[in-house]
């Protein structure tokens, strides 16, 4: 047939198909109108579902339109069933289209609808729980995935005896545990699934995941044997069988790639792709995109960078990424942009590599806003820090080659993206929620009740480890996540997706800022002065630096004062070595003010006590401490420092002091001394012991300019939860919640209030951080166990200095210097362990507090006035008497 006739035939077929679709659409609308006229909602819904299933390419659009055009709410059980079916079907088609976030939203709506109407004859496990938990796993929200999977198990045990379905749920649980690097739990979940003796299909699924777990456990030989055996037992006879065989080939490819058997990996990936082409030609978009990325990885492993980029572009095209504006949050996008970046580096295209790293971080940043749990966000931050390090290294090399300072700005941006992002999210959301008039909103009130209930149960879990509150907390947290999503949709300003990628150093104070980035391979020190980045110092061998810091902090501070006391000279040398390592390369000038933005282990270190010159003397007061020439404060990040905070406008002081004299804990006799000494310089509310509790704390928190808390502090429970001991009651970090206003400064004079668990890429999870999250502009907190008497004296000196300088950071410095310069009965207490644990974290600010009334002065004044009046009256009386006598 001549080619021109073939073209005409194709055109006629397209026209016929278009006409058929239009006719079909007209027929659908007529039927829908008829059902609506009869108020027959059930058949109206089923007609929509039939059309969607018959036209899968149009399914998502038509079902979303059904949501908009439904004329009334469902009333009968039949209508509830039909609508639940529609919501779950919408989630299914959005997943096939690659719209993972839309799919999650649809399944969440289905789950909420099910809970509200209890449609128990609907297979909620198979059609909602299962795909929803899988979606959470796909975006990395493993906490919520596990919650749904546990709910599925409970539902199955109550309403179904289908062992195959239960085995499939255990399979999905294993995937979640594997993704959280909890490999032992993953193995157990697989064992529990296999113990149910499921059918061959479900055994294949479980063994697929088993091979994945072995792969993560670096047992590649066994993983390969398991997956090859699994493949031999499978045959693609329908779409479901084909999907799992495709998954097996994908896992096999991953294992072969890790074993550097690129040829076998490529063959496995291509077989998986062939199955998708045959059984899912227009769907399973994300699986197809993943295969293109993995095939690209095999080419990159063979030094074929151009081919790798070609397959990376196929991934982007498959996921419908046409420009920066179309990028959304998806792990597959994060991975493919990194693949292309590595290929760019192979081709000596560092600029392009840097661009793709930034695009990878952009997609990852959009994922984080779908996460509910802070722990999930912190895990993401750890992964993103690895990506950021690669971008920093490229930027550093480009700066070395070109001296173009835009690359210094890029280094700072990347460093900030991997620092305290979860804290920044909390600060922004808390401030936005209290700055807008939403307190009376029904959803907001419900949110507050949920948060209080969760805090109560979490507190119960810590104080009563055998309580059965865990399941309740998981359920409430899941409901809270959905509620937060509803609030964000209703109040758009609560969405914090637009992360400020350009760091506004022009709005910083004019003094020197030193920001650290401690990566896996190198350490970078960013030097900012007078609102400009002066340079970046690179330290090779990050592991060696981390080891030196860890050893120094643990030996001389976390393990108590003995090492310092027993060998002051060794400490002197070690401290000078640390100074030379992390600060000397900056070449700071005398009397400069410094703001330190630490990273990693540096978060446990106070810089004030570092030794700046190698000139040892036995007279500790003469040691060249950094504090003698520099004022130093700290920040979690530049972004958190610049975040808006609504602090109290009052000038009042509130002091909460707990001596623990009537408890089993060590009595803090110095607390009474501390309070008495502070009274000499500040007036305000001073409350003690039984009067200190969460209620009095809440009342004073919103009305105080400065809140001072003196009590025991420590880490509690398996999660090392930062805790304040209020005697009969305890206050945990998770109980701190945003208030309408907050103190400008919270002083935590207790031990270890700036201490906590180090979350890589996020920082130290401490009480100090918690107060910053709920709106406090700055905190003074302790990094290690302090000597109580020393802390009391330094605190009193701090308030005395604050009275004079009005500058809180400088007042703390003067208090420390006063300790060093004042004669002591023992030279040993001049060692940094005793005076250097307190650090100022946050915004440097002017603070003026009311002075106490000096009754001695007033009494002397009144006495003199009385004497004067008496003398005057006596003199007047004598004059009068003399006048009469004349």
Describe this structure in words.
There is one protein chain. This protein has 6 domains: 1-38; 284-436 and 491-503, Serine Threonine Protein Phosphatase 5, Tetratricopeptide repeat (Alpha Horseshoe); 437-490; 505-634; 639-842, 3-Layer(aba) Sandwich (Rossmann fold), CATH 3.40.50.1460; 853-886. It contains 33 helices and 16 strands. It has a 6-stranded mixed sheet, with helices on both faces. Strands 3-2-1-4-5 form a 5-stranded mixed sheet, with helices on both faces. Residues 1-22 have low confidence and may be disordered. With 886 residues, the protein is α/β, with parallel strands linked by helices.
Domain count, please report it.
6
Based on Cα principal axes, name the global outline: globular
CATH architecture heading of the largest domain: 3-Layer(aba) Sandwich
Strand content: 5-15%
Neighbour order of strands in the largest sheet: 7-6-8-12-15-16
Span of the ends, CA to CA: 152 Å
Gyration radius, in Å: 33 Å
- Structural class label: alpha/beta
Protein name: CHAT domain-containing protein
Signal peptide: 1-23
Domain CHAT: 575-842
Keywords: Membrane, Signal, TPR repeat, Transmembrane, Transmembrane helix
């Amino acid at each position: 047939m001549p080619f021109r006739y073939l073209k005409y035939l194709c055109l006629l077929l397209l026209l016929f198909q278009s006409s058929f679709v239009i006719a079909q659409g007209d027929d659908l609308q007529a039927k829908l109108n008829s059902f609506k006229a009869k108020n027959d909602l059930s058949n109206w819904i089923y007609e929509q579902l039939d059309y969607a299933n018959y036209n899968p390419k149009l399914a998502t659009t038509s079902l979303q339109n059904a949501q908009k055009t439904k004329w009334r709410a469902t009333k009968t059980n039949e209508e509830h069933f039909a609508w639940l079916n529609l919501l779950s079907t919408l989630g299914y088609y959005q997943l096939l289209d690659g719209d993972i976030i839309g799919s999650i939203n649809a399944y969440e709506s289905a789950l909420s609808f099910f809970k509200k109407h209890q449609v128990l004859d609907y297979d909620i496990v198979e059609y909602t729980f299962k795909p929803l938990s899988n979606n959470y796993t796909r975006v990395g929200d493993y906490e919520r995935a596990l919650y749904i999977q546990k709910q599925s198990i409970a539902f199955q045990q109550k309403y179904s005896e289908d062992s195959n379905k239960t085995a499939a749920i255990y399979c999905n649980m294993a995937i979640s545990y594997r993704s959280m690097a909890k490999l032992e739990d993953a193995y157990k979940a697989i064992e529990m699934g296999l113990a149910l003796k499921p059918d061959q299909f479900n055994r294949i699924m479980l063994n697929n995941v088993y091979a994945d777990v072995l792969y993560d456990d670096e047992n590649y030989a066994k993983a390969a044997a398991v997956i090859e055996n699994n493949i031999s037992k499978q045959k693609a006879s329908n779409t479901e069988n084909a999907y799992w065989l495709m998954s097996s080939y994908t896992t096999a490819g991953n294992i072969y790639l890790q074993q550097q058997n690129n040829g076998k990996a490529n063959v496995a990936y291509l077989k998986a792709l062939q199955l998708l082409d045959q059984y899912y030609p227009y769907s399973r978009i994300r699986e197809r995109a993943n295969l293109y990325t993995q095939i690209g990885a095999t080419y990159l492993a063979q030094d074929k960078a151009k081919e790798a980029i070609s397959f990376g572009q196929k991934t982007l095209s498959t996921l419908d990424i046409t420009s920066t504006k179309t990028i959304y949050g998806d792990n597959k996008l994060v991975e493919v942009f990194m693949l292309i970046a590595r290929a760019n580096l192979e081709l000596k295209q560092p600029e392009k590599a840097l661009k793709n790293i930034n695009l990878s971080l952009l997609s990852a940043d959009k994922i984080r806003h779908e996460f509910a749990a802070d722990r999930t966000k912190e895990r993401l931050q750890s992964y993103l820090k690895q990506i950021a390090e690669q971008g920093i290294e490229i930027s550093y090399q480009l700066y070395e080659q070109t001296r173009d300072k835009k690359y210094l700005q890029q280094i700072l941006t990347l460093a900030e993206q991997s620092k305290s992002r979860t804290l920044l999210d909390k600060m922004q959301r808390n401030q936005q929620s209290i700055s807008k008039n939403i307190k009376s909103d029904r959803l907001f009130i419900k949110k507050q009740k949920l948060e209080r209930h969760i805090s109560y149960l979490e507190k119960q879990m810590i104080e009563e480890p055998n309580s059965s509150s865990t399941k309740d907390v998981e359920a409430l947290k899941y409901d809270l996540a959905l509620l937060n999503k509803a609030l964000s949709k209703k109040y758009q300003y609560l969405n914090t997706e637009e992360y400020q990628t350009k760091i506004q150093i022009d709005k910083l104070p004019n003094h020197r800022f030193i920001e650290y980035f401690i990566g896996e391979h190198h350490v970078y020190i960013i030097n900012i002065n007078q609102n400009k980045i002066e340079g970046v110092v690179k330290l090779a061998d990050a592991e060696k630096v981390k080891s030196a810091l860890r050893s120094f902090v643990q030996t001389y501070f976390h393990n108590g004062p003995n090492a310092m006391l027993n060998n002051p000279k060794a400490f002197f040398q070690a401290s000078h070595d640390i100074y030379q390592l992390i600060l000397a390369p900056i070449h700071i000038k005398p009397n400069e003010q410094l703001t330190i933005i630490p990273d990693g282990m540096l978060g446990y270190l106070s810089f004030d006590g570092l030794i700046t010159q190698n000139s040892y003397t036995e007279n500790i007061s003469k040691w060249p401490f950094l504090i003698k020439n520099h004022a130093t404060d700290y920040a979690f990040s530049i972004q958190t420092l610049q975040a808006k905070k609504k602090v109290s406008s009052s000038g009042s002081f509130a002091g909460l002091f707990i001596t623990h004299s009537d408890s089993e804990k060590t009595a803090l006799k110095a607390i009474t001394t501390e309070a008495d000494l502070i009274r000499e310089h500040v007036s305000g509310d001073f409350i003690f012991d039984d009067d200190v509790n969460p209620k009095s704390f809440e009342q004073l928190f919103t009305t105080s300019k400065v809140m001072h808390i003196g009590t025991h502090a420590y880490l509690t429970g398996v999660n090392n939860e930062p805790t304040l001991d209020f005697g009969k009651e305890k206050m945990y970090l998770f109980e701190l919640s945003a208030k309408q206003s907050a103190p400008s400064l919270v002083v935590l004079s207790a031990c270890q209030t700036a201490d906590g668990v180090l979350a890589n890429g996020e920082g130290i999870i401490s009480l100090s951080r918690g107060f910053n999250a709920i709106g406090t502009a700055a905190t003074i907190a302790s990094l290690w166990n302090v000597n109580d008497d020393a802390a009391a004296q330094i605190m009193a000196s701090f308030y005395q200095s604050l009275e004079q300088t009005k500058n809180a950071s400088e007042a703390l410095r003067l208090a420390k210097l006063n300790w060093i310069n004042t004669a002591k009965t023992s030279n040993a207490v001049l060692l940094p362990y005793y005076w250097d644990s307190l650090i100022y974290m946050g915004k440097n600010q002017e603070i003026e507090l009311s002075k106490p009334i000096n009754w001695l002065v007033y009494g002397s004044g009144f006495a003199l006035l009385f004497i004067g009046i008496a003398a005057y009256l006596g003199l007047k009386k004598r004059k009068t008497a003399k006048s009469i006598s004349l």
